[in-house]
Amino acid sequence: MDNSTRRLLQRLMRRIPTPLLKTTLEKWGRLTVAQRQSMDFTQPKWAVTEKLLAICEENEWTAKQITELEMIYIIDNPNQGMWYAFQLMDPEDDAHSVELMQFKEQFKSHLSELVRHVSVKIKKHTDEAVWIRIAWGDSLSRPNHLKPTYVVHYLQTPYVFVTSLTSKQKPLLSQALVLSTRYHAIKDANLSGRKLTAIRDLLMRQYQQAFPTKYPSPLAEKNHTVSNPRIEREQAGLIANRLQMACEAFGDGMLPQLQSAVYKLETKFKDHTNKTMTERDEPFKCVVKFASTNLLESLRHCASSGIASTPVTPLLSSIPLKGRNYFVITDNGPSPPSQMHASQN
Amino acid sequence: MKMSLLKPFSKLPGLNTANILLVESEEQFQQNLADTLVEETAVTVNVRLAKSLPLPMENEESRPRIDLVVFIINLTSELSFRSAEASLKYLDPGYFLGKVCFMVTNARNASVPTERLDAVRKLAASLHCPLLFAEDQTPDGVTNAAERLLTILKVAAGLVPMATALYLSNLTRCTLPPDIDQPSFD
Amino acid sequence: MATKLNLSAPSDSDLSSLADQTASSRSINRSLRVAEKERRKNEAEDPFVLALKYFSDVEAGTPLFGNDEFEKNLVLVERLAYSKGLSPEAISIMLEFAMSLRMGNAPCVRVLKCLIPTTVVPQGAVVRAVVWLGVGKIPINTQILFIKWVLTVFDLIDAKDQLRAVYGFIFSFVTDENLCPFICHLLYLLTRKESVRVFRVRKLLELQSKLGRQPFLLHLLSLYKVFCPELVTLSIPSRMRSGFRNYNSPWKSALIAVQKRNGSQVASSTSLPFTIKDKTNPRKRKHCHLELPVLSSLVNKQAQTELSSSRKVVPLVQLHSLTQLLENMHRIELPAQMGSLLGSSLALQYLDCVQDESALLRLNFWLGYALHEEFLFCGDGGGSQTSEEALQFLDKLLSSQHFLQESFSSSEAFLYKFLSVWDGSLLRPQILSLLSNIPVVPSSQIGRLLFEPLMQLFFTSSLFFKCGLMECLSNMLLKWLTWHSVYALEDDLDISLNSHTSINMTLSGFKDSVMELVHFVGRLASVGLQLEGCHSLLLSFILDFYEAVCDTFLKYGLPLVVMPPPGVFYPALFSLDPVSVDRLAFIMYRYKVNLTSAKTQEKVTEQAFHISRQTFREFNQYLVVMVNCLWNSKMFNPGMGVQLGEELLLKSNVPQYWTSFDLIHHPAFMSYAVDFHQQCWPGRKDMDFNSIKHSKPWSWYLEYLYSQGYDGLKQFVPTP
Fold first, then answer.
1. Measured distance CA(A162)–CA(C510) in Å, rounded
2. CA–CA distance, C64 with C44 (Å, rounded to integer)
3. Which residues of A159-177 are buried (b: 16+ CB within 10 A; e: fewer)?
């Protein structure tokens, strides 16, 4: 066992919280019963690590086994770091019949054609997701297992989720993905968040959604609190209306937990009192960022409690509607298709 | 549109009945208070809840005579204060003869700027209205706040012999902000 | 020195547990000398002792990389530190090794991180380490780490006198921008009145103008201001938030773990009163600082015998009786956490008799901040305020105040602020008790500070609040009067109201305040009774108050008599329950005694004090009304307080209306009259109350009433 493998294990052990250590190691399945029992999880972590290192030495395990352990931990605890969503475009005819073995083989071969030193590990998770761990190297250095990229792809869907990918690696991964999934292109889905499940649900529409309708839904009825005949709301209509509007925009069920939404404005500055700014030719650029532990929930509450005006502005409601949380807003006119048009008011 | 003023004596009082209007822009605390207020058994208490004034015209008919108007202000929110301030002008001056009071929440919160509390005090003092402090976070606090409102409401509705709203408000009205910052640690 | 410390530290016996076991198994009969020899022999082979020896002997410049011996020894020390903690001796050695940078910076950080003391940290080691700071080779981050460590273990340092001696040296580090916050914190913990000097204040102000109003500077300055207000003219904002952050994180969990692990062993080996509670000044921790620290000093017994001879300080915690306290009065070391004084009666006794101004200042300072942060500027909007912790804290404060029989000025200042935002229900029993303890408020301030907020609360709150406030004000009056009778000086009639703050008040000033209070309560009582329909519970609390008021002259020697207002007198007189009427009679009786005695004294001594005619007139008026009404059946006679037109009374169709409120027809006594009538004339079918009116039955009837326990009535009209 070389020094880097040792460091890899030490770093991994530091990342795994003590309460999860035991179960994670059990899932790994590499340790014999005797070895597992010989480990005392009440000891400080460095002592446990020492013990595990000794066992690894004894069994002459290499980075292969350690990365296995890492994958098990990451798959169970994916909510670390930022996840970015991508969408595959223009499927070929046989794109829907790509199955796991084929994808695995193709992906590995495509990627190793592009990069000389790369270590790829693919594992199928129970929920149909294919988890790919890529340790990147380059023509000179061996794969760096300390900074792996994780990719999650749902077979037969156009969605891919990626974490810790550098801009240098991005084209390489894109190409390998496009080729092995039988698509023609891949694009940024403009959606990111700390919770993998949340952005997956949002993009793949796996949550209770709102369907815009012109008719008042029976939901409004439910929310009207009939507490006591001697309590009367003077502006009850307003409240019901607000609730309905909020529900129309965001639905009334659990919402995926997004952490932020970013609006990048590139519009003309319009303010008749400020001539110098208004007369400039270049667009006025600014970025508006909303952040919260559960952004969609917060926005819904803002709308239903009257903090934000109703009906909810399309700027906010298009987060769940379009499944994205990064928008570029420009003045009406010719603009790239991925951008959003909004007239300023 | 004609501005509709809420008037204290435009309607006849009900027998053994007191009616209170809770105005709160955040619509959080008023519901809790209302639930506790209607539990009163000695008199019939009707509660009307509003986000702000003026009240909608269409309820004009069904609305009973309002005996006490309470403005609930959450001190951590500037909006809450501004909204209450804006609502005041939709009240008939007659209400300010003892039938208006202010109830403030979150006064002990560290994030409240002293200036805002002072502004609320000045507002209440200039209108000769009582200013009550309430603990809206705890059940005990809510019960106590409701109890105190009832004490005022009963007088304002004329249910306490030998006492009128004006008489009580003379005893309880807010005085100008005391400047008690100095004796702190000297 | 080292061996002595070694003897006293349990960790050594822990680590050489094998040695101890063999030693103890060889029975206690063997001489100590032999056991000691044995022990030393074993110790010499102990790898840990060897490791320590390595670190104390290792030469400067020894290479670090590839040094297996170093690695082995350090791991040994670390392992012991994390499991059992290090003995004071080990701490000294390791700290010296680290700070001297004998093997460079890398091991220094590693060593600092594992300096978990088992018992105490020797002061000498810390002082030496501080000196190493001055040498200036240590990287800044390591310096910060070291100061953080000192802050964490501050309460475990066995004495502070040498550290205080190098106060100026430590102060010199404030100019370093990186170290400044931490040094300020350390200085804050070390500051004594003597340490506050003009040039230091100037330096801090200079830093403040450079760095801005940093909370750590403000906190240190405000402490300076407490000690020497004349040196710090700067105004300190009353709303300061957590000035010093918690720096104990790297060691905290390890320390707790070590303590936990050692807990049982220490208890069984009975070697040390091991009571470490807080690692930093409690004020700095939000939500935890209401937990009163246990009065603790970590100077253990053995060390004490040795220390007290050399340094002459005795930690308060080692004293267990008043005699011990008196013997050691001159050399008492106060604990670092002044809050812990509140929990100990002995400490309070010390505080009370020593009149140590700086101790009281420190306590007040701590208390003021604790109360403000916890109850007035809450982080979470006060949701957790009714917590058990808060209750216990206030109860402890109250019991301390009762013990000292006076309030702390900081709790007084806090109360005035709290009253202005109080909802009347939060912590009501505690707040009202605290309120009843406040010393006399000058009459110029009393209205603004007390009456205005209280009046508003009183009239908008429930009956029970009204009763509670009445009781509180009665207690307040009683305390004021008691203070007066205790502290009043004979000759100049000046009274020192508070033995510590020495606010002197003239007698007339005191009289004014009492009068204001009595009038205020009279106002509350009259209107309160009116609003609550003369509720008898409220009336009872009001009469409690007047029982104190009527006796101010005779019982408390205060030449002041204030009569109750009609709004109290008449509701009591016409009350539906006989007890209230009886109590009113008793109160009137005491007024009479007080007034007569005042009058005679006035004549005899010709003293300057004078009870106004108006008071006598009021008293006589009430007396006439009461006698006429209850005894003479002459209600509504002209010239009485209550007058009604003859026509109106006739119109009411009440027969013999003038008898309506005599002792027979008074609603409160009617049932007694009926009972008496039946007992007196058992055969009679129809009730004739007028027959009681005849002189014989009337005196029997009165006797009968008195026998029912209505002593007030009896005393009011002495039997001829």
1. 79
2. 26
3. bbbbbebeeebbebbbebb
In whole angstroms, what is the distance from residue C510 CA to residue C497 CA? Answer: 9
Is the link from the previous residue into A311 a cis peptide, with omega within 30 of 0? yes
Q: How far apart are CA B119 and CA B121, in angstroms?
A: 5
On whether residue C345 sits in a domain, the answer given is no
The residue ranges of chain C whose pLDDT is under 70 are 1-45, 136, 235-250, 253, 262-322, 325-341, 343, 353-358, 379-386, 488-504, 606-609, 639, 641, 718-720
CA–CA distance, A181 with A233 (Å, rounded to integer): 58
Burial B58-67 (b: 16+ CB within 10 A, else e): ebeeebbbbb
In chain A, % helix, strand, coil (3-state, to 5) comes to 40, 20, 40
pTM of structure = 0.69
Q: Name the H helices within A128-208.
A: 170-181, 196-203
Q: With CB atoms and an 8 Å threshold, state whether C368 touches B134.
A: no
Whether residue C103 lies inside any domain: the answer is yes
Instruction: Enumerate residue ranges in chain B where pLDDT < 70.
Output: 1-3, 177-186
Residue in chain B nearest A234 by alpha carbon: B50
Q: How far is CA C648 from CA A218, C93, C635, C658, in A?
A: 68, 102, 14, 13
The structure tokens listed for A97 are 């019949």
Give residues 50 to 79 of B whose Cβ lies within 8 Å of C: 76
Q: Two tokens at A197?
A: 């499940």
Touching subunits of C (3+ CB pairs, under 8 Å) are: B
CB pairs under 8 A between B and C: 116
- Sheet of A231-233: strand order equals A231-233, B44-50, B17-23, B68-74, B100-105, B131-134
Q: Which amino acid is at C516?
A: E
What would the two tokens of residue C259 be? Answer: 């303590």
So what's the pLDDT on residue C116?
87
| Residue B20: φ, ψ to 5° | -125, 140
The third-level CATH classification (topology) of the domain covering A236-330 is Ubiquitin-like (UB roll) (3.10.20)
Does residue C161 fall inside a structural domain?
yes
C201-230 pLDDT per residue, tens: 888 888 888 888 787 888 888 888 877 878
C42, part of any domain: no
Find the distance separating the first CA and the last CA of chain B, reported in whole Å: 58
Taking the domains of chain A in order of start, what are their residue ranges? 3-76, 83-194, 236-330
Domain that holds residue C695: 663-719
Chosen CATH of A83-194 out of 2.40.10, 3.90.930, 1.25.40, 3.30.160: 3.30.160
Domains and CATH numbers, chain B: 18-172 (3.40.50.300)
Residues of A in Cβ contact (< 8 Å) with B23: none
Tokens representing A54? 């000794």
Domain boundary among C231, C249, C272: C231
Q: If you write DSSP's letter for every residue of B72-123 in order, what string do you get?
A: EEETT-HHHHHHHHHHGGGB-GGGGTT-EEEEEE-TTBTTS-HHHHHHHHHH
Distance separating alpha carbons of residues C173 and B184, to the nearest angstrom: 31
Find the closest chain B residue to A232 by CA distance: B48
Nearest CA in chain A to B31: A231
pLDDT > 70: percent of chain A: 90
Query: Cα–Cα–Cα angle for A283, A286, A287, nearest 5°?
Result: 140
Q: Which residue of B147, B152, B180 is in closest CB contact with C416?
A: B180
DSSP assignment of A19-36, as one string? HHHHHHHHHH--S-HHHH
Mention every residue, 6+ apart, whose C-beta is less than 8 A from residue B154: B18, B43, B160
